[in-house]
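LAB NOTEBOOK - FOLDING QUEUE
OPERATOR: T.R.
BATCH SIZE: 2
PURPOSE: Compare the predicted structure-token outputs for two unrelated chains run back to back under identical settings.
PRIORITY: normal
REVIEWER: second-year student, initials M.K.

ITEM 1
FIELD SEQUENCE / FIELD STRUCTURE:
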Amino acid sequence: MTIKLFVTGTDTGVGKTVVTRALITAFLKRGLKVNAAKPVESGAERVDGRLVPLDALALVRASGGQAGLKNVCAYSFPDPVSPHLAAANVNTTIQAEPILSLLNQQAKGVDLVIAEGAGGLLVPLSPKLLMADIVAQSGFSLIIVAPNVLGTINATLLTIEAARQRGIPLNGVILNRTPETELDNAQAIARHGQCPILGELPTATQDDDQSLARLAEEWLDWDRLLTNPQTG
């Protein structure tokens, strides 16, 4: 059975892409066949006259470059704003079906597929569609990436609660950019959210994929990453 993981954040800019790259590369090093997906990306850049979703491209490269961008990213937009607005700015409405079709396709013939969302779980994709709706319909379990800073307890617990209200299975929480000062974030989130903490990563910058994988292997709980997710 294919393991299906969906990486969301408590906010934009919390390190989802870096963590997803680390996970992809670490899973590959464990001998698993892995596909990636970044279904929606705003803030794509023009390269030689072509719109390129750079986060999606980074996931393609981390996973070995076998899948083309069209198989990884269903929607990409130039404006670095919320997906619903980025789509509206180019007279497009994001639909669920192309995203779900892409996720299903990427899950075929592999041991694991890992998808990265855009922004947080409740980011709007259209006037009638949230990212959470996609995750709930996809059958993927959720990994929440949260910055290990003051204020993250509230944001992470709200994300956990939103996922549970929609019946989204929870794989766990990864705290990113862990400071030297102890903030008790992991303990408080685990206690009040009743959700596994998968690990606390140190500050991970845009290092190469192999370096990121080594961080993931050292700091994350791989037994929990590969166990059945919580549904309640």
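ITEM 2
FIELD SEQUENCE / FIELD STRUCTURE:
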Amino acid sequence: MGALSSRLLPVACLLFLVSACGGKNTEAPGGASARSSPNAPVLTLLGSRVVKQPLGTKYVDAGATAEDPREGDITSKIVVSGLSALDVDTVGDYLVRYNVTDTSGRRATEVVRIVRVSDGTLAAQSARPLGTTQAPMGYFEHLPLHYADDPSEKFPLIVWNHGWGHSLDFGHRPYELDVLANVDIFEMFAAGTWDDSRPFVVLMPQRSSQDILGKEARVELKRFVDYAVRTYNVDPSRLYMMGFSDGAGLTWRYIHDYPNQLAAAVPISGYFSFTEGCSMRSTPVWAFQAKDDPIVPWASTFATVDTINRCDPVERARFTLFPTGGHYSLSIVHLSNLGEGDPAYDKYEPDIYSWLLQHHR
């Protein structure tokens, strides 16, 4: 293992900087979502958190109430946003947001209602630009087919981490978030090839190109996951993360920094470190790689998996190696032919999504 590590180290340093170069992560895991103080007001949503609204019919919002421990009922101070953008004549998923601040400046935790305007079909994906929600990043969203059927039902969540080339702040695109509409897993929603029987809420936050895999990116991702848990009807015991290239490196880093949150993770075409596998032993992982990848050597991904398996993990880490595909072997997220992959490692079976659903935290 030592010979393998030293042979791959220069490439790893170029790709993933300190995290893959043997540097120690001395920052304490942070990024917990902002919580209102004990004396902050409390918002209570009236009616359902999710509403299925027939196309072309009038929407009447049920509203919310606000109670402050010192000032009592401050419902009149609630600020509602999103109603003006709710178009009952256009199929889509709309967010109605409720916020309130007391006279001392203490702010309640935001509550959100999702209104699914439908003519029998539902929006495949929605853009949530930075600043239109309390999320620390803009993101794309997919809600499962039956999300509004039972407003109390909790769904599994997939957070997908895109590669570096789709990050914010490249400066030459007028609408940065738009580049995520046909990327990676969201390409399947746009093309209509996603299997609607899969019950996942899927969110793809857009990272900044200025930080890549640094502390800020990791903290913002933790804040984003916490935002998702409090905003969507998701099951906290079924939080999953997937990622491609730099997004795979960030996925590895996330389960290193926050080892007790995710139920399972799937890094694709990216690796983390050959020395810190024991820190990731508590999260089931299935890594994918193409043998002819010219950017991330497949042996480096295998080495990361191997270090986890040397640390008595809660579940043996899996590694699937495809003979071809290069770095951009994203066809693996579309795979329907099970049993593929180098027989020396783990073949592709079961499918990724069935494997994820086998895991609860």
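REVIEWER COMMENT (ITEM 2): The chain has two domains: 2-30+135-357, 35-119.
FOLLOW-UP: none requested
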